[in-house]
UniProtKB/TrEMBL annotation, chains A, B:
Organism of this sequence: Microbacterium wangchenii
Entry-linked InterPro entries: HTH_LacI, LacI/GalR-like_sensor, Lambda_DNA-bd_dom_sf, Peripla_BP_I
UniProt-recorded name of the protein: LacI family transcriptional regulator
Family annotation (PANTHER family): ALANINE RACEMASE, LACI-RELATED TRANSCRIPTIONAL REPRESSOR
Keyword tags: DNA-binding, Transcription, Transcription regulation
Source organism phylogeny: Bacteria, Bacillati, Actinomycetota, Actinomycetes, Micrococcales
Start and end residues of each HTH lacI-type domain: 8-62
SUPFAM superfamilies per the UniProt record, alphabetical: lambda repressor-like DNA-binding domains (SSF47413), Periplasmic binding protein-like I (SSF53822)
Amino acid sequence: MSERRRRVTINDVAALAGVSKGAVSRSFNGASRLPESTVKRIHDAAEQLGWRPNAAARAIQGAPARTIGFVVRRDPALLGSDPFFPLFLAGVERVLSAHAYGITIRFVTSEEEETRCYRDWVAESRVDGVIVSDLRDGDPRFALLDELDLPGVIVGDPGRAVSQPAVYHTTDASIRELVDGWVQRGHTRIAHVTGDPNLRHTLRRRAIWADALATHGLGSDLFETGWFTEDGAKVATRALLAAAEPPTAIFYANDIMAAAGMGVLADAGRTVGGDIAVAGFDGIPLAQYLSPPLATIVCDFDELGDVVGGELMTLLSTDGSVPPVTTLAGRFLPRASYELRAE
Amino acid sequence: MSERRRRVTINDVAALAGVSKGAVSRSFNGASRLPESTVKRIHDAAEQLGWRPNAAARAIQGAPARTIGFVVRRDPALLGSDPFFPLFLAGVERVLSAHAYGITIRFVTSEEEETRCYRDWVAESRVDGVIVSDLRDGDPRFALLDELDLPGVIVGDPGRAVSQPAVYHTTDASIRELVDGWVQRGHTRIAHVTGDPNLRHTLRRRAIWADALATHGLGSDLFETGWFTEDGAKVATRALLAAAEPPTAIFYANDIMAAAGMGVLADAGRTVGGDIAVAGFDGIPLAQYLSPPLATIVCDFDELGDVVGGELMTLLSTDGSVPPVTTLAGRFLPRASYELRAE
């Protein structure tokens, strides 16, 4: 890592505003009896220099925050049914706790808010490192972390050389196994319902699905965007059923979409595991209780969190190194929804 | 709130160790060139006084941490299938973000670790307030918060007068509606699979189930502990089926247990929604995709988080007051699993 820039201190603010250090401190902690015009001058000086009270407190101490930051830019509605989030967190925190570190989570709704959050954390010395997940195409966060000199571990495949280490599940082989198996069983119309197309892992799953089909000389125009949501999957499934030649097998980019899609298929008089085959992705516990049990690609998010937490602790220690890329293997789990049953 | 005790300052440590303030500061930030024996003397003095570097940094500043703490003492394995956690967090964080507050989550595995976490947070001024959930019988946290003078909002019914405000779903009426409906349909053997008996809400659900049965002159000995887990529910369901007079209806204390139980019932040749009725609790999205769709008691955890976040922000402001108890209503949602179908 590059050397950290010298921090702006309370002395700089005091000098610029022409007041004492004590006056600066009091103007920020509400204990000030200074004229309003003086308070304003101090705050203007602080803003001009990018100085904030907490940064000073930390700088005086030089103590680490002992906290890892995790900015989550995601629709809260998506959190309730996504197995990634709680399991991953539990895995990370198990490691952090052992090192007396905590995790701070911030939910944001826009890229602007996301960027501001990282900048505030650094300005106020609130975190020692961050977790970067839900990678997007053209994601600005790798460069932002470089600029802020903020250590971080990336969850996902950044798709290019970046200075932060990345950890992710490789599921390409599992997706190929899933598609190949369907082709071997005679399927030629194998559809895909994708997640949010702004996310890199959505694009990856679709690309591998398409490539596996191409290997067998099959086209890949049978896909719909499902946004990782139940509602998205329902619309997508209805669109697939309305095609001139509907699919005989559908691969959904997550389990919750597969579950919702199975509901639509049943309503349309189709029999999953009978006259149409279905598979999901994630490996949520409830998948096995669907009817028929849902074939899926299992990812161990708890283990993922464990690895990410370990790499963060290594990054923040003075010794030890972290490989640029660490991968965990996903696993295809065929279940009854994957097969067609002769009636 | 009571007046906060005077904090131990860096001056106290310096005086006790017989060194300057600067020496104390440097001895903690690694910039010290002092003899090892002096560093040891300073650290011994700090430990004796209960002083920590961050407390000093904060005290110099007098700035709030702008952070809410959430200690979660729970088996990580339970997190993946529990809808409460991510939805509740998202609701809390939406409110906190609007006030430029963040949330710090710490997972712990024992009461000792839990207590230490609260004490450390206060000693190091890391949080301004806390969320207390997963209430246990004889929970020591209400008194701990009093002792630490740490503001907090309780998620759940503490069952006695405490100084922290409490927010929770009232689901008594929904449980009675569920049980009454089964009795009206002729069921007399209505079983309950409980959650973790160390949690207050587990005991509450069981007590209301038993009381609703008693209203109809029915006994309440048909219950098994399911621990809120799939495996627990499987064991519990097998035990109920092995009873001399097995139940004709089973109320599970959460949806994931109901799903797992339905699997066991199917394996045993029973038809849910046919010759045995089932209901769950929570209202997870996937419940509607089970076969048959699972009747449940719906709780809006996102709204719960929203209310808790709002009360925390009010508590931490200088004005405004929070009612001792705020309740949200759960809602019974009958679906096909609740009925017996004439075959």
